[in-house]
Amino acid sequence: DSGVTQTPKHLITATGQRVTLRCSPRSGDLSVYWYQQSLDQGLQFLIQYYNGEERAKGNILERFSAQQFPDLHSELNLSSLELGDSALYFCASSKPAGGITDTQYFGPGTRLTVL
Amino acid sequence: AQSVTQLGSHVSVSEGALVLLRCNYSSSVPPYLFWYVQYPNQGLQLLLKYTSAATLVKGINGFEAEFKKSETSFHLTKPSAHMSDAAEYFCAVSEGFGNEKLTFGTGTRLTIIP
To answer: Confidence class of residue B100 from pLDDT cuts 50, 70 and 90?
Structure first.
């Protein structure tokens, strides 16, 4: 158990819909990362938040957005869903980097199926 | 830009045999390198990481990896494979502080033959 929790575990929805994925980081971790794992794209970085602020952006679609709340949990919002958005979405957390990259601890993931 | 190449999407070894999973990286700055393991229907678990302290890095479950700058490689090894090692293994690179995102390779599925 990494200490990172993600809900829900599974999500099945239809095209055009909107969903919200939730992540609670490990106690004390200020950074939250979102990654997408799909068969055709592999594991891809989407976005990082650090202490409530967006810190880095990767291959995140405009239909996707994220935020980190004052209690440090994060939500990833996916809208206008397409079949190709079906994937496993991982959240990871780490302590503040202090010159040496801290380990990112991954949650169990949310499996999104778009029908 | 940074990237990782994992040679061999599938590797099969006999139980008790040497495990060797290959990873080559590309980075414009001194890299931080990681190996993660993913068991079926689970998240990613860190096996080991290289952060420039020592070129030979020991990780969990008997795995180790050696950073070779001249070969831009960070291959993962284990002297004796166990059935429980069957999983998917991902090599990843990060540029470190200020750019901590992980760039992953495509993964290697390790099968252990009894």
So the answer is: confident
